[in-house]
Structures are given as structure tokens and as C-alpha cells.
Amino acid sequence: MSVTFNHTIIAAKDRNESAQFFRELLELPEAPSWGPFTNIQLPDGVLLQFAEPPVEIQMQHYAFLIDDEMFDRAYQRLCERDIEHWADPQMRRPSEINNEHGGRGVYFKDPAGHAIELITRPYL
Questions:
Q1: CB 114 within 8 Å of CB 121
Q2: Helices then strands, each counted (H, E), the chain
Q3: Three-state DSSP class for residue 7
Q4: How far apart are CA 91 and CA 93, in angstroms?
Q5: Phi, psi of 50 (to 5 degrees)
């Protein structure tokens, strides 16, 4: 069997709010949830499980590879909702996107404060 990424738990202040944020941004359907998790499933089968840990949340980085059409729609939603975003991970180029690696990219924070990146071309 080859190695594939199956799931991860993403710490959230409000697991339902975070899951809804990603479902709306990335146009994902609801997924079955259980126990302390609110789940969303990506088209490739990877499960994102949002949970509310009893500790202070440390920022993590999550990058999503999406096609150009999805990027256009997701970026429009970021702008319509006045979500602060940057062209670079150092947050020095506000309200811009980048054109690196032969594609486009943008950085922003989710409701829990995690650094999220949307890209249209893989780095490698």
C-alpha cells in the first residue's frame, strides 16, 4: 500500500464555526461528525476534524492546493467578507495575492487564528 494522508485534528475556538468557515470558503459538503469533532472531508478523502482543546491554541499552518476557478471564488469570498489577507507569509503585502511557482497564492487566518494558504500550483 502506498502512503496517503488520511486525517488531522485542527484546534478551534469554536469547532462548528471553523468547520463552517472552511466548508463555505472551499465549497465543501457537510460530513458526518462524532464525539468532540466537527468534520469536513476534502474531495481526495482527507478528513479535517475540528476540536476545541482545553488549552491555548497555538497557530498552525495549513495550505490547500486548489484549481484556478476555485481560487477566484474563494478569493472573492475573502474580499466580500473583509477577511484580512496577504500575498506573503510574513504579512508584509496586505490585500494582495502572489504569482509564485507558476500560479497564484494568498495567506489569511481562519477563525481560530491558524495561518491558511491557498495556492493554485504545488511548490514541487
A1: no
A2: 2, 7
A3: strand
A4: 6
A5: -95, 130
Model confidence pTM above 0.85: yes
What's the confidence (pLDDT) of residue 109? Answer: 98
Q: Rounded to whole angstroms, how far apart are CA atoms 87 and 56?
A: 27
Give CA–CA dist 51/11, Å, rounded.
5
- pLDDT per residue as tens digits for the range 4-19: 999 999 999 999 999 9
Supply 87's cell numbers: 500575498
| 3 state SS of 31 | coil
**Residue 32 pLDDT > 90, yes or no?**
yes
Q: Listing from the earlier edge strand, what are the strands of the sheet with 7-11?
A: 7-11, 47-51, 38-41
